[in-house]
Amino acid sequence: MEIIAAGAEEAADRARKAIRDSSARGRERARTVLNALTRLWAYDELSARPAGVGRPPWDEFGADDYLPAATSQGGENTTEILAEQTMGPMLVWAIRMIDDFADDILAAWQERHRLVTVACSNPANQAGKEALDTLLLPLINSGNPLPTTSIRGHISLARSYVGGLTGASKGHIQAFIQRHGIRDLAPQRPGPCPMDSPVTGKIAGRPWREAMDFNETVALMRHLGTACFIVLSYLTGMRPGRLSACEPAAVLTRSPAPTTASDGT
After folding, report:
1. C-alpha span between 136 and 88 (Å, rounded)
2. How many CB atoms lie within 10 A of CB 42?
3. To 10 degrees, what angle do helices 159-166 and 170-180 make?
4. Measured on CA atoms in the order 204, 207, 213, 219, is the torsion positive or negative?
5. Is residue 37 within 8 Å of 15, Cβ to Cβ?
6. Can you give the three-state secondary structure of the chain, one letter per residue?
7. Most buried residue, 134, 162, 225, 231, by most Cβ within 10 Å?
8. What is the pLDDT of residues 153-181, one digit of tens each?
9. pLDDT of 117-146, one tens digit each?
């Protein structure tokens, strides 16, 4: 090996260059070079005329800090695992999110979808107009908060929510907004959009929500999806890209129940 015949300073320079060059060619090539340098040190230790080669730090503390990042080969997931102190609480809360709150969130998601669908197809009729007045006029006259939503930072009346509840058409809602100055009033008196959706989940023995909110449901659905992703990733070891590509049917399909073998076992 050329490094052996070089002086101490030149040998150190060549060793550093060998490590840099090997790192550019992949983790396994870099590991081979580190092993060769470790053997060079061991050889020098046993030599009758040692050149003073220092012990490589990776021989004592491990080679990971001196190797390029691991890459996936052969279909295996080589991503470094999370520490137990991080993964443990995260997995516990992900499972609790699913077990305790999934039913409420999914029911709220369906109710929100129903309200939006109804609001988009309401015909203009007197019944819807009267229901709109019945819902909003008492709130306006009493000074109570109005059902609002935030779109790109701008607070306005939650039209889809109101339309879904009252059956009022888009035209009637727009006319009501203009007639009563709701465009200016809504940012001053923002309020929730509670839905008629069950709340069964509990925290410390008490319901975790007074009501499922129309606006909050989208974020809760995203959190539920994240919790499912965490649990599935932990149980299967699949890479994020592969797990994200799974079809819902593939995730929800259960294995068939085991059958009794012919020998009775």
Report:
1. 47
2. 14
3. 120
4. positive
5. yes
6. CHHHHCCHHHHHHHHHHHHHHHHCCCHHHHHHHHHHHHHHHHHHHHCCCCCCCCCCHHHHHCCHHHCCCCCCCCCCCCCCCCCHHHHHHHHHHHHHHHHHHHHHHHHHHHHHHHHHHHHHHCCCCHHHHHHHHHHHHHHHHHCCCEEEEEECCEEEECHHHHHHHHCCCHHHHHHHHHHHCHHHHHHHCEECCECCCCCCCEECCEECCCCCECCHHHHHHHHHHHHHHHHHHHHHCCCHHHHHCCCHHHHHCCCCCCCCCCCCC
7. 162
8. 999 999 999 999 999 999 999 999 999 99
9. 999 999 999 999 999 999 999 999 999 999
- Biggest alpha carbon distance in the chain? 105
Question: What is the token pair recorded at 59?
Answer: 């021989």
For residues 52 and 236, give the distance between their C-alpha atoms in angstroms, rounded to a whole number: 50
Residues 6+ apart with CB under 8 A from 134: 166
CA distances from 74 to 42, 71, 78, 259 (A): 34, 10, 10, 34
pTM beyond cutoff 0.70: no
How long, in residues, is the chain?
Answer: 265
